[in-house]
Design a protein that fits this description.
Elements: H1 2-18, E1 40-42, H2 52-56, E2 62-67, E3 74-80, H3 89-93, E4 100-102, E5 117-126, E6 133-136, H4 137-147, H5 155-164, H6 191-203
Antiparallel strand pairs: 1-4, 2-3, 3-5, 5-6
Helix pairs in contact: 4-5
The chain binds iron/sulfur cluster (2 copies).
One iron/sulfur cluster binds next to helix 2.
Length: 205
Amino acid sequence: MRKPKLREVGEAVRALLRGPVTTRFPFETHEPAPAFRGRPTFYADDCIGCKACAEVCPARCIEVVDDLSRRPPTRRLVLHYDKCIFCGHCELNCSTQKGVRLGKEYDLACFDRSQCVQTVENELVICETCGAVVGAKKHLLFVAARLGAKRYANPALLVLAEAELGLCQPSPPRDPLAPMIRENLMRVTCPRCRRTLVLQELWGE
Ligand code: SF4
Ligand code: SF4
């Protein structure tokens, strides 16, 4: 019985000598541990607008807004960090590994939750045949660069990458009433239109 009591006294004395383990925040700045997961932040230069982060976010705090009325059409990612649970899945699954990163910022209290947002914008590529969203331009160029010579298997990626290098001119707008013909394959098209074109090429109408 006496031994545990002596141990407790020893611990109390050691704690007195060591001082408090809690910090004096907010009166003093607190330095988080090296692996601390704080506020996630988008880095526009490294974000390609693929929206992988929004798809994996368990708290659904990354909103994707595709605005087709703007010129050029734009994808806006809105991070509502007031809903964030700091799990780090967005950073872990980011296609570039650098587009969104969790920092050390932890003092996120605010009076107006609508102010607790951060946004990043990327230009969108639209299907030249039907007007649907194909993807963010930086994302498609990122995929084309990763594929290297294999991008020749995908006309949309090929046309986009060659146009970026100034090796081809953008196609004139397609007449929506004109029939879908083979030459439309060499346009930037969405997967649905490409499928229609290939099926028509193989089996006709
Ligand atoms: S840290 Fe988790 S909850 Fe917060 S934005 Fe990233 S994926 Fe969503
Ligand atoms: S590049 Fe990263 S941060 Fe940008 S949309 Fe894709 S996953 Fe999100």
